[in-house]
Write a structure and sequence with these properties.
560 residues, mainly beta, Lipocalin, five-stranded antiparallel β-sheet
Amino acid sequence: MRKLSILLLALCSLAVSTTHAQVSKVEVSTPFDEPEDGWNKVLQLKNGNTFFFHFTNKDGIEVTVYNKQRNLVATRELTSELWEPKKMKHSVIEGLYEIGGQPVIFLQQQIDRTPSLFRIKLDANTGEIAGEKLISTLDRYPTGASWAMKYGRVEEEDFFVEKDPRSDCYAVVNFNSFAESNKRLEIMHYDGSEGKHKIINRAFYNSPEGQFKYLRYIGMTVDGPYNVFMCTYGFNHKNDMGNDSRVIMSRLKTENGSPVFTHNLLAFSEDFRETRGIMQYNKGTNMLQLMTLTYLKSKGGGFSPFNTSERKSYYLTLMSFIDPESLTIAYTKPIVGEKIDADLHQQFEHTSAFHGLPQQMIINRDNTTTVLMEEMETTTVTNNVGSVVSQTTTLGNIGVAELNEKGSEDDGHVILKVQSCKGIYDPLYLSEKSKGKWSYRGNGATFNNNAFLSFDYLNTDNNKYVLFNDYPSNYAREQDGKRRRKTVTTISGANTMCYKMQNGKISRFFVFGTPQDDDQTKFCYVESSHFSKETNTYATLMMEKNGRDKQARIAWVTFQ
């Protein structure tokens, strides 16, 4: 475990700063030991400070604070009598945000078989706990709950947290799958400005006229202190969706001093039960944008195959534009990556098509939308009785689709990549990462290499960038026009690459400088990274390897 007893000399030492041709500045902290098992996350605050979190498996949360000069100013080990530090391995980080000028952690734990959500506020300068509160609990899991979830198709109880990107308002959804139908889903709407976290609205969600017995959460977005918009899937039969299943668009707002829900059934004909989504409010167009990813199993009609050793599965990705007042769909567009596929064939003369799944939806300042996609192929190995022995996910090429205000794909680019990770790597990973969401119960907690894989995306006013860890030999092959790449399986031989997209052209460079030889590598912990739009600064946990010696640093890269 990374030791908190860092030399006091480091408190006053200056960070190393260099400049590269492709970026304005690269700064690094003083080195420290590589963090061991657990999860790492960097958060840049608007006051210029940077927080580095190491969520340990069983010893609480380690916090390191750097000031705007990149000097280490404080270290803390967060423990509590309210939540249980020794249960971190079985915890879920539901969100990590700056709210009211403070880092705020939303931590889910089971306390005596009762799912509980804690809000932990930290001092923005010292990292000390400035306030902690149990803000919600769900029903205690009854006897036989494990059987009901495994064989009875009852969903796990859960919380969902979404913050408004334009304000300090946020919403919490309590999803109580074992409760009565009219108490199954509850929304709490908060205003977190000035660190006060005042409740604006709190109400149970009743499906339209009690029409649906079961509900599944798809996505949510918060419009300041005014509205919470949520999308759910309503149905009445656990094993058979039936013709009465519907996608429901809902709004929670205050009317005459009381919380009021408004609902509308959306006109979708597909089975949307196994659907995940991202919802954002585009203020420029005054439209809600809902990007949904629906698992179609082995049905036709989808464009994104997700291969296993037993079957080929398909997904349907849609972008729906919804009027925030009437909650009706203005128009819907399928996202198929036509421009990405065309770029793949034009650049590299590929005969196969691009089959990427969505990872993130970004609304740009000009009201256009960028959809990030990644090819994903899962291989499952079973034994002679059908039990799963192992699973691996190949993370392939990256697709960047540029959509206009109407959702049509105006441009698309592909970036070649191939990485192999252990376990199942879920789509929409980048969306979850942007919220600081992490689950110790997921595969990522077991396989440390996975946190270095996939990719990152950031955009400034002038350029767009894609970053990922890759072998230098792949960079050389691409420079020579060769398509075939070596699969990244061990991260220690990789360096962080950056692909700069500007005016339809792509240039490549090493983020932390060109490596001198194969024994010297610098690669980032992609899971940890955070980009500040205010300063165009990308902050990440960087690993620096020189032969057998390896050390960690926090790196700040300012992009042009």
